[in-house]
Design goal:
alpha/beta, seven-stranded mixed beta sheet, two-stranded antiparallel sheet, 11 strands, 61% helix
């Protein structure tokens, strides 16, 4: 019987491993993944860790600081030395599969039921958040979730065995989680919840173990976060309310340069109309709950997405009655935080815990009566059907990424960006600077430094484009000895560009650039991307 169960688990892991890798390998390096991949390539070339994204300029010759702890970069650099650029398509999907495996282990520990564990893992594997974070882009969020789940599992084992080894492993994994990205801080409350809910001991002992857990975590991660602070002046991220003011005081005290994301980002990013609309959108209860639903798809009004919340609520209440407090309390806490920072990839753990809640409730249908047996079979069938529909739907959407830009169908979009980047790599000077709405993909494929017009590039360059001020655009571009304007056609709009998150360019501005031949000379075009040399 155990061999059959193991076979079922292995088949599940194999299916989703194959699906994740197949889709991820179909998506060239893109978006933020290109920022990280380009940084790792330069770290490999230099043979040492760096404190700035080497290919992304902000203003003048200033490079964009790496505001994150650097464990992700060191880990990926080491892997990349072994398997090359395959790292950017294969490693994060494997992390996603390992997340599904840890969901199985945690569910098996909590519910002592193989089928509940398999269902929890299946729901997690097919969830919108896990798939998109694992296959769409080379990002660090999946590594954060993997490490926090590994830490949770080890801590659960400690509460059962009282073994110092499990406690130490839990500390090591969460310290690594903290060293990967700052979002790990929002997951910290789960650990005291687990200790106080699961550890059979006195209140004082629980309190002591909680203090020791965090004390040793921060001791272990101290070298990583201190390096981050010394290089950027921040332990978190620039602009975090209240914390940013405290960090400025500390930075001034130790004479550390506190880097900022710049006035352009504050004015046109954080303060933009797009951000205001995003916060308004996710203040609405239905949209807010989308982050909690593993079966959420891009089709927000689908029965699949909407029908999930009633059983989730009922099963959550059932788990409370069964004294599984930590899962439910933590997921409520995370949903409250979501109002403050509505970014779905930061709240992937919500969908993972929702998968545990739904899958775990199978144990309540385990009585040997004929009626409950039929209910259990029906429950399993519904979950399997939902999981298949969800995974197929989300993976299908992911396959379209190379031909989409900001929800617009643009056949060959990434291929056109890659071709333009390759042309720049082969036909421009090594010290050339690309001026473009969003730098990451072009700088990665060209291995040239790039000035991001939007927000990060500073208030001056962005307003020059918004105001159709070609003289100012030329003046700023001329600051660099060799500069090129790279203009994607699919980011040109005939209307109001201000308030957009991505740097949409006004059609009038682009036309004026083409007309001012004394300023700019078109040197390359592949129908989707135009390249102008600054004269």
């Amino acid at each position: 019987m155990n061999s059959l169960k193991n076979t079922v688990l292995l088949i599940l892991i194999f299916i989703f491993s194959a699906a994740y890798l197949f889709v991820s390998l179909k998506i060239p390096v893109d978006g933020d993944g290109a920022l990280h991949a380009g940084t790792i390539e330069v770290i490999k070339e230099k043979g040492r860790l760096i404190s700035f994204h080497p290919l992304t300029l902000t203003e003048g010759s200033s490079k964009l600081p790496i505001f994150y702890p650097k464990l992700f970069y060191t880990t990926m650099t080491a892997i990349s030395l072994l398997i090359g650029t395959t790292t950017y398509n294969a490693v994060v999907p494997i992390f996603g599969v390992l997340i599904g495996l840890f969901v199985f282990l945690i569910a098996r520990f909590l519910f002592k039921n193989f089928y509940s564990s398999i269902l929890s893992s299946l729901i997690a594997f097919s969830s919108y958040g896990l798939i998109t974070n694992s296959v769409d882009m080379f990002r660090m969020e999946t590594m954060v979730i993997l490490l926090v789940l590994a830490s949770i599992y080890c801590l659960l084992r400690y509460t059962e065995t009282k073994s110092k080894i499990w406690f130490s492993l839990s500390i090591i994994f969460f310290a690594a989680c903290l060293g990967t990205k700052q979002q790990a801080y929002i997951y910290a409350p789960i650990f005291p919840l687990l200790i106080f809910n699961r550890l059979e001991s006195s209140f004082i002992k629980k309190l002591i173990m909680t203090v020791l857990f965090f004390l040793f975590c921060f001791i272990l991660v101290a070298p990583i976060v201190l390096e981050e602070f010394l290089s950027t002046g921040t332990f978190f991220y620039p602009g975090v309310p209240l914390i940013g003011r405290i960090e400025k005081i500390i930075a001034d005290l130790f004479n550390v340069n506190l880097y900022s994301v710049g006035a352009g980002w504050v004015k046109y990013g954080v303060g933009s109309e797009r951000i205001a609309n995003l916060k308004e959108q996710f203040s609405q209860p239905y949209n807010h709950l989308l982050f909690l639903n593993p079966f959420y798809t891009e089709t927000k009004d689908s029965l699949l997405a909407s029908s999930f919340y009633i059983p989730l609520f009922l099963f959550g209440c059932l788990l409370l009655l069964k004294k599984y407090y930590s899962l439910v309390i933590f997921i409520i806490f995370q949903q409250v935080l979501l109002f403050i920072q509505p970014l779905e990839r930061y709240f992937l753990l919500n969908q993972i815990f929702a998968a545990l809640i739904i899958g775990g409730c199978l144990v309540f249908f385990e009585k040997k009566t004929h009626r409950n047996y039929l209910i259990k079979i029906l429950f399993i069938m519904v979950i399997v059907v939902f999981s298949v529909i969800s995974s197929v739907s989300v993976l299908s959407e992911s396959l379209k990424i190379p031909d989409y830009s900001q929800d617009k169908y643009v056949p060959g979009r990434i291929k056109a960006e890659e071709d333009a980047g390759q042309w720049l790599a082969n036909n421009t000077e090594l010290d050339s600077v690309i001026v473009t709405p969003r730098t990451h993909v072009f700088s990665y494929y060209s291995r040239r430094q790039a000035l991001w017009i939007n927000q990060l590039g500073g208030e001056e360059i962005y307003e020059a484009f918004l105001d159709n001020d070609v003289d100012s655009i030329h003046k700023i571009s001329r600051q660099y000895s060799h500069s090129y304007l790279v203009i994607p056609q699919y980011w040109i709009i005939d209307g109001q560009a201000e308030g957009k998150w991505i740097s949409y360019l006004e059609k009038q501005t682009v036309s004026s650039i083409g007309e001012r031949k004394e300023y700019f000379q078109k040197v390359y075009s592949n129908k989707l991307v135009d390249v102008y040399k600054t004269l």
